[in-house]
Amino acid sequence: GQNIDQPTEMTATEGAIVQINCTYQTSGFNGLFWYQQHAGEAPTFLSYNVLDGLEEKGRFSSFLSRSKGYSYLLLKELQMKDSASYLCAAMDSNYQLIWGAGTKLIIKP
Amino acid sequence: GAVVSQHPSWVICKSGTSVKIECRSLDFQATTMFWYRQFPKQSLMLMATSNEGSKATYEQGVEKDKFLINHASLTLSTLTVTSAHPEDSSFYICSANWPGEVQPQHFGDGTRLSIL
Known about the structure:
The structure holds two protein chains of two kinds. Chain A has strands spanning 3-5, 9-13, 18-25, 32-37, 44-49, 53-57, 60-65, 70-75, 84-91, 97-99, 103-108. Chain A is an all-beta fold. In chain A, the strands form two sheets. In chain A, strands 2, 4, 5, 9, 10 and 11 form a six-stranded mixed β-sheet that branches. Chain B has no helices and eleven strands. Chain B has strands at 4-7, 10-13, 19-25, 32-38, 45-51, 57-58, 67-73, 76-81, 90-96, 106-107, 111-115. In chain B, strands 2, 4, 5, 6, 9, 10 and 11 form a seven-stranded mixed β-sheet that branches. The termini of chain B are far apart.
């Protein structure tokens, strides 16, 4: 079956760096997405990886290893507003998104 | 700015009521829109794929007669929760892709539905 695994919750300190891991198993693969979702709000797109390697976008970076079925989202210089859930989603061969349950990130001062 | 508009953002109604949620693509035509449901602390669950001018494709376990989807125009899809019950209380979110793109999905702001 198709599956996405990511940690349920993580805690980090303001100004620090945090890495949120995601492993996936899908029927075919057309890319890996990361979304940010604040409580009570809809997800917002953060990044997309379809080739192996690191994609950097400001304070956020995303990494993909297709051979390992693994991705991570790296958040640098953490700010209090980064407290949110981070959703990992993989797109299968039918271009359907398979969603992880999300990682709740708690930022402490 | 927002590319997908969803309305209403919050609905509270009595059990047995039918509720309609609208999803509009702004400044682009969306032949396909997606409807999700999210329970507290859980993942997004795809309910159905809405196809303009044809029947929606429902995911396994989603009742077609319960969750009516109409995609009558290229910019509007509606989800009607018929005879809603407390267990239907959830966060409903729609999304759409830019034409010619399979990613990313742009989400509406979501509708929080509470059935008393």
